[in-house]
Amino acid sequence: MVESQEIELQGHIIDSGIMTQLFDRVMDMGGNFEILVFDIGKEKTDPSYARLRIAASNKEKLRSILSELHRLGARPLEVKDVHLVAAGADHVVPKGFYTTSNHPTQIKSCGEWIPVEAIEMDFLIVVDPALKRAVARPLGKVRKGDLVVVGEQGVNVSYPERPREQSTFEFMHGTVSPERPSETLIAKIAKEILEVRKKGGKIAVVGGPAIIHTGADKALAGMIRMGYVDVLFAGNALATHDIEYNLYGTSLGMDISTGNPVMGGHKHHLYAISEIMRAGSIKKAVEKGVITGGIMYECVKKNVPFVLAGSIRDDGPLPDVITDVMVAQDAMREQIKGCSLVLMVATLLHSIAVGNCLPSNVKTVCVDINPAHLTKLMDRGTTQAIGIVSDAGTFLPLLARQLEIQSGCVQK
Amino acid sequence: MVESQEIELQGHIIDSGIMTQLFDRVMDMGGNFEILVFDIGKEKTDPSYARLRIAASNKEKLRSILSELHRLGARPLEVKDVHLVAAGADHVVPKGFYTTSNHPTQIKSCGEWIPVEAIEMDFLIVVDPALKRAVARPLGKVRKGDLVVVGEQGVNVSYPERPREQSTFEFMHGTVSPERPSETLIAKIAKEILEVRKKGGKIAVVGGPAIIHTGADKALAGMIRMGYVDVLFAGNALATHDIEYNLYGTSLGMDISTGNPVMGGHKHHLYAISEIMRAGSIKKAVEKGVITGGIMYECVKKNVPFVLAGSIRDDGPLPDVITDVMVAQDAMREQIKGCSLVLMVATLLHSIAVGNCLPSNVKTVCVDINPAHLTKLMDRGTTQAIGIVSDAGTFLPLLARQLEIQSGCVQK
Amino acid sequence: MVESQEIELQGHIIDSGIMTQLFDRVMDMGGNFEILVFDIGKEKTDPSYARLRIAASNKEKLRSILSELHRLGARPLEVKDVHLVAAGADHVVPKGFYTTSNHPTQIKSCGEWIPVEAIEMDFLIVVDPALKRAVARPLGKVRKGDLVVVGEQGVNVSYPERPREQSTFEFMHGTVSPERPSETLIAKIAKEILEVRKKGGKIAVVGGPAIIHTGADKALAGMIRMGYVDVLFAGNALATHDIEYNLYGTSLGMDISTGNPVMGGHKHHLYAISEIMRAGSIKKAVEKGVITGGIMYECVKKNVPFVLAGSIRDDGPLPDVITDVMVAQDAMREQIKGCSLVLMVATLLHSIAVGNCLPSNVKTVCVDINPAHLTKLMDRGTTQAIGIVSDAGTFLPLLARQLEIQSGCVQK
Amino acid sequence: MVESQEIELQGHIIDSGIMTQLFDRVMDMGGNFEILVFDIGKEKTDPSYARLRIAASNKEKLRSILSELHRLGARPLEVKDVHLVAAGADHVVPKGFYTTSNHPTQIKSCGEWIPVEAIEMDFLIVVDPALKRAVARPLGKVRKGDLVVVGEQGVNVSYPERPREQSTFEFMHGTVSPERPSETLIAKIAKEILEVRKKGGKIAVVGGPAIIHTGADKALAGMIRMGYVDVLFAGNALATHDIEYNLYGTSLGMDISTGNPVMGGHKHHLYAISEIMRAGSIKKAVEKGVITGGIMYECVKKNVPFVLAGSIRDDGPLPDVITDVMVAQDAMREQIKGCSLVLMVATLLHSIAVGNCLPSNVKTVCVDINPAHLTKLMDRGTTQAIGIVSDAGTFLPLLARQLEIQSGCVQK
User: How many CA atoms lie within 13 A of A316 on its CB side?
Assistant: First the structure.
């Protein structure tokens, strides 16, 4: 027997590609559709409205199709309240719990639409009907008695629409090509950074140790000093090599000014960690005059917060490194709040970690020498991204220079 | 004024390339050498002996040259006792502390040579002269009062010599070429595994989630069942996707049998984690019959220990994941003890982490689709490595099949 | 002043994504649209019909928008005859000439629709109104007096629609992920090959020398012997290394059975070429018993034609290599005719060259260790492609085995 | 029965690693050695001398070992004249012919040492004893009656020694790491270019189309205008996209200034080719004022010769493209003569082709976004190379700027 249900969609559903995706998924899942109403916006600025009957051979199939369409913003004609079930114990949640996308989301509780706070990909929604609050929360943080949303009923996702105006950032991008005009793109990114700055927006940098190895540390330190960075996310390696370079002029034992290994240099990174352990922390090492320059130094001097997340490949690590990764995630979440632009340079691990915490409307710029890494990064989370296949060692100096030129600090 | 000192070397110093490296480094550092004695082994099995006078323009330079030669096994003619200094506080160690290589190392204490236990790259050496014991220890684990070796005096490194016989494994390898005869190499690796097994050696597998995504999980599960794996190192992702596949037939929401995304599949990995949280642990989930197959299931059934190390990009994570990376490192070290072969498949992070803990005489097989990852992996630690540019999805099934054929379980 | 024109589209224009692309491009180019008629197919099998008014700020802009929409299959309401201009001299063609896509194309001449023969990407259309024939021809082959189509007027492109049924091949694919279930995909490709074979379709293989270096030559030779290959496209390197292997057991001097370089082996590839030069050709070398096995041997024995196209990096080359690349292109075009499946393995150069000659409805399977190569390949020409990130050395043996199993030649 | 022969070596055979390589190869091939004399240079500037007896289990084995050692510069104690055999027909050469390395080589004829002219990898040596001349020649160019050297007897290879002084260029390099200080290296390359220029050396550039796509064309055009390029090697794509950009502001239809595809832009590359066909050649198009800027324009204006080698993936091609690859190789050889520095940017195919023609003492700088490409390039031919993992779009502007700064044209 055929089961069916009516749904509706609204917005720029044709030119944002939502309609196409909807048809694709219904057909991919072996379902069927009939178009009941289709009021297409006559001009490009008009929103469209569609009502469709979705059909499938059985209830189970229909439900899974509707669950998929739900994530595209489709909803039943009449929306009921969310279904809430209390967690039986800490992290023991009701089966069939709702998992979030990173798009803006609302739930219906007691007949009222409530926005879901702290939205992030793959979270659960915990609702307090009395306080009329709904919060997205990771599975591991659900406590006994929390009221968890089960199923899609009463949940509404605002699927992002394609921005009307032309943008440097690609919308729901795909392939990353290494063959793009680097200098032009870098100039645009500088412009974007200056605009965010002007609007009082927050800028985050996620960086890998290659920034030091490729000699791009001076450029990043300069950007921090000039006030273009509001928070830094990295690991033990970036901080250690930055400090090693400040103390010994080497990075992983290599002389940055010549590119050659320095004899005895293999000890330097461990000596650098030891000096910070002796001082107590990076901040104290700066205050005591142990460190006198570099990325971490500028962060301390400019009061730019940094989150150094631990990884199983860490040596040492530095006392500032958060070795428990779940604690580090929370620190990242705390600091990422309110960011409107994230610059991810030469690190897959930390970039994915930060990307996981981003709502879908944050702009991201991803720079990596490996096109496959970029593709992986840009598949996640954000709907507006630029990917640049380049090495940190040429990208960051060109960006810093563009920032100087465009901000009027330096003549071209 | 020119400073100089005599040193000596012994062993297969010519054909292992040690002599060449020594000359290179002296010249690279602007030093000078004079050959005083050079008794070259007449035939290829004879060890050679060389005595050289190393000279440099000042004491500082000479010391750093000698420090470098020390790591190649060169030592002063007369060796004095190690210089020991007590740590002033926890992790606050004397300046100029000795940092270990991962080659077998001995120290001289009270005129006697003592082997350094638990040797690992970039550790310090802590000595107990009374007990005549010397142990390698990470910086972060040195406690107040520990007697730490300072400088190279009294430390002897046994730099590895090139094995006489032909070997599948490359010695101090370099470039990794994607264009090598895959099937032939895989057959050799199977042979090597069977030989290690025959000699009672221990085999470790380090694996990434691509093992599941590429459909190689059945092959790895089979290898565990057949008894070819003694310990498994992985992260939250491998275990989660393996369990997701067992519970829902998908991996990250993709139907492994068709390669297509399954509708609603995006929830599966979170549902999988939730089920294990409900059961309490992977082991309990196996015992309760929640999981009925796959890599983790076979590990539990065969009592193969596994270490799941946390990472900041983790979702969940599973209750078995060790979220503090320093605790995870210790667990890895504990389990890696006594391994004679490590198979690293499709994970850079975990492979580097395991590689960091390996003494230089453990054989490693590294498999990755990205030649640059292999080069990075094979630069570390071990002196005997095979690198194969391949995807897990074709490599592991071919390896499992070779093991069956060569062990006589199956006819070709 | 605003200029505008009405256009119409027909077919599965929504679920094939054509409508979305159309809106995108109009907006990207700063144009405007108004929907006049939109008869959407009520059910998924119904074709839709749309009539739109496209507007732009000036004639030039409008023309370039319409030119772009033309390639999506949109056409003016009333179609006039093509505009033909005679070429003034050999290769000297009228400005504004029409350049083809690789989709099926028709032109209107004397009020009649005529299909364009030998369609290929980036060709011109030469029309003979008397004979009622239209042929796609490369720029370099247009002769004085040829009547060349100028502008889009009178040209109709049948933009490919998404196939209704589920397919292994992706439609207008994008990103290539290395993490896909290899064995499953390989089994499907084998199935596809067997189906093409059953229907009497033609199968082409494009291969690079890595097939030999990775030891996959036996698998490919077997596939030729079993009759699964109708034409082989390659370069001097594949043929030379294949013959070198047959004559000396090495490939570029490396012993395929051990993976080690053979001493003296560096001469082998030149010696191999010399032997074929002595024999006169590969065919003669097979007939004289100089070559007794391998890929080229099987081609000769099975009368499978091969095109060996020259490249500037060639040593020798073999007498069979076509050193003029334009002559080689023509030979490729001749042989590619009628192919319904092309298997491209481990060669970017030759795969792109073959891909350039393919009409958009030929299925292609691309195998390469480098995901970026695959993305580049799959961006070209065809609308139905599978990309597999794998090495030839594991892929081809698994494929050959699947062909044996599925065709019933061998038990699993 | 054991066969043996005495050989001798001279030079910096220890610190250049030659001795190590020699021992390695003897052992790898199952041979044995006895050291008869070993006069090691006491100080680093003294040459060493070694006499060894090489032994093997049979004559065949011994011969192949000696053949291998020959390429390292080892030679029998008494050297006889080369063995010459006349070619029986065009390209039909005597079996066992000698194949050259790209190191300086001499042959003994009538008791006299004669240098081999035009040495290049994998050539044969043709000798004219009457004129006392020996010339390296490709297999395909040996004519009937030419006297060809057979076997190694009478041939002496001067294996390159490691340069005494520190060098930016690596000697017999291996692995290429993406993590090197880019700006520092680029400054050094600029310095090297200026030094070559000062000494009147010749500089060649080999370039791929990514130079245009990434917007680095202005930098390269500038370098040509400033006189830093003496010859350009490229293919149809680089020239076409450069001209397309000059004519239409796009490269492969993409607007370089914005990075976005231009509507109608897909025709531009074909239109560009058509315009050059109409003019007759690139030179004529410059003279007629059709092209007014860009890389090819500057070449014509500065009389910098260029070789555009054809490839089977070419569209068009431009009338200047040499479509016969063997003719193109000869043109490359002609122009490469006397070059002392070659800059290879973003092209594997053309770089390998040029590299094949280089004697081993030419310095090469290789720039590519793909580390695997660099490794492949640097394995070939030259003994002094720098590999930089970077994209053309950031590398060339930084290099051009460094040239300006270091030459005093511009202030930092």
Answer: 30
CB contact under 8 Å between B326 and A328, yes or no, is: no
Whether the CB-CB separation of D58 and D68 falls below 8 Å is answered with no
Burial state string for C44-72 with b = 16 or more CB within 10 A and e = fewer than 16 = beeebebbbebbbeeeebbbbbbbbbbbb
CB contact under 8 A, D215 and A389: no
Nearest to A43 among C34, C175, C371 (CB): C34
Quick one: tokens of A319?
A: 């006392």
3-state secondary structure of D47: coil
Entry pTM? 0.88
Range of lowest pLDDT (B11-15, B136-140, C334-338, D388-392):
B11-15
Predicted pLDDT at A41: 67
Distance from CA of D182 to the nearest CA of A (A): 5
Q: Looking at chain D, which subunits does it touch, using at least 3 CB pairs closer than 8 Å as the criterion?
A: A, B, C
A162 contact partners, CB below 8 Å, separation of at least 6? A12, A15, A16, A17, A171, A172
Mean pLDDT in chain B?
88
Partner-chain contact D264 C64, CB within 8 Å: yes
> Three-class SS of residue A406?
helix
Asked if D66 reaches chain B (Cβ–Cβ under 8 Å), the answer is no
Lowest mean pLDDT among B95-109, C141-155, D56-70: D56-70
Of the residues D182, D370, D389, D412, the best mutation for testing chain A's interface (the one with the most A CB atoms within 10 Å of its CB) is D182
Is the CB of residue A68 less than 8 Å away from at least one CB of chain B? Answer: yes
Taking contacts as CB-CB distances below 8 angstroms, the residues of chain D near A166 are: 260
CB-CB contact of C154 with C79 (8 Å): yes
C365 close to C344: Cβ distance less than 8 angstroms: yes
- pLDDT value of residue A234: 98
Best of D263, D269, D322 to substitute, by most chain C Cβ atoms within 10 angstroms, is D263
What DSSP string runs through D188-238? HHHHHHHHHHHTT-EEEEEE-THHHHTT-HHHHHHHHHTT--SEEEEEHHH
Question: What gap in Å lies between CA A125 and CA A97, rounded to an integer?
Answer: 8
For range A280-285, the mean pLDDT: 98
| Residue A42 forms contact with C (CB below 8 Å) | yes
CB contact under 8 A, B35 and D34: no
Work out the burial of residue C339: count CB atoms within 10 Å of its CB; fewer than 13 is exposed, 13-18 middle, 19 or more buried: buried
Q: Give the amino acid at C347.
A: T
Query: Each residue of C184-223: pLDDT tens digit?
Result: 889 999 999 999 999 999 999 999 999 999 999 999 999 9
- A-chain CB neighbours of D390 within 8 Å are 369, 390-391, 393-394
Q: Which of A99-103, B39-43, D304-308 has the lowest mean pLDDT?
A: B39-43
For position B143, what pLDDT does the model report?
96
How is residue A389 written in tokens?
Answer: 């296949």
Residues in chain D with CB shorter than 8 Å from the CB of C95 are 271, 274
List CB contacts (< 8 A) between A188 and chain D. Answer: 259
Q: What is the pLDDT of residues A229-274, one digit of tens each?
A: 999 999 999 999 999 999 999 887 777 766 666 766 778 999 999 9
Show Cβ contacts of residue C22 under 8 Å, excluding neighbours closer than 6 positions.
Answer: C9, C13, C52, C69, C72, C74
CA–CA separation, C189 vs C184, rounded Å?
9
Mark C141-150 as b/e (b = at least 16 C-beta within 10 Å).
ebeeebbbbb
C183 contact B CB<8A = yes
Give C59→chain B minimum CA distance, Å. 45
Residue B181 has pLDDT above 80, yes or no: no
Mean pLDDT of D300-327: 97
**Residue D242 touches chain C, beta carbons under 8 Å:** no
Mean pLDDT for all residues in chain D: 88
